[in-house]
């Protein structure tokens, strides 16, 4: 009888943890602080990667690039290379309308700004 109770308890914990893993979250990519534009590559909901050029009018332009739904544990990726060497773009990844990760270009003008990771549980 005690063994059956333990098995039921473990099964209940497994079901609870599995249901949390399936929680759907909204993910959004945003880029700011680019003087005249940037090249960007980012992962989409289906895992494919899109590459495009975005034009900006000033560093105050906030470009919302892509928004999608994802499950906890899904992978995301965004890479930004600014077209002006004197520009310092900032990249944000929002999860459920809160900044989850961010990065900005430093003095190394040749390196892209990359933000990647997994959606939190």
Brief overview:
The protein is α+β, with helices and mostly antiparallel strands. The protein has one helix spanning about 1-20; strands at about 25-30, 35-45, 50-55, 65-70, 75-80, 90-95, 100-105, 115-120. The chain contains one helix and eight strands; from the N terminus they run H-E-E-E-E-E-E-E-E.
Tell me what you see in this structure.
By secondary structure, the protein is α+β, with helices and mostly antiparallel strands. The chain has 1 helix and 8 strands, in the order αββββββββ. A 4-stranded antiparallel sheet has the order 4-1-6-7, with no helix packed on it. The longest helix is centred in the first third of the chain and has 20 residues, at 2-21. It starts with a helix and ends with a strand.
Which terms summarize this structure?
single chain; 121 residues; alpha+beta; 4-stranded antiparallel β-sheet; 1 helix; 49% strand
N-to-C series of helices and strands: HEEEEEEEE
Instruction: Summarize model confidence as the mean pLDDT.
Output: 87
Count of individual helical segments: 1
Low-confidence stretches: none
Strand content range: over 45%
Which class do the helix and strand fractions yield? alpha+beta
Helical content band? 10-25%
Radius of gyration from CA coordinates: 19 Å
Largest sheet: 4 strands, antiparallel
Number of domains: 1
Ends distance: 34 Å
Widest sheet, order of strands:
4-1-6-7
Shape type: elongated
* Number of β-strand runs: 8
């Amino acid at each position: 009888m005690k063994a059956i109770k333990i098995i039921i308890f473990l099964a209940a914990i497994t079901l609870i943890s599995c249901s949390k893993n399936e929680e759907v979250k909204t993910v959004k990519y945003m880029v700011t602080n680019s003087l005249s534009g940037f090249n960007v590559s980012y992962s989409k909901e289906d895992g494919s990667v899109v590459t495009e050029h975005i034009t900006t009018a000033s560093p105050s332009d906030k470009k919302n690039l892509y928004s999608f739904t994802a499950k906890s544990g899904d992978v995301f990726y965004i890479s930004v290379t600014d077209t002006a060497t004197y520009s310092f773009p900032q990249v944000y990844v929002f999860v459920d309308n809160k900044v989850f990760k961010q990065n900005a270009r430093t003095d190394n003008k040749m390196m892209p700004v990359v933000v990647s990771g997994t959606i939190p549980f």
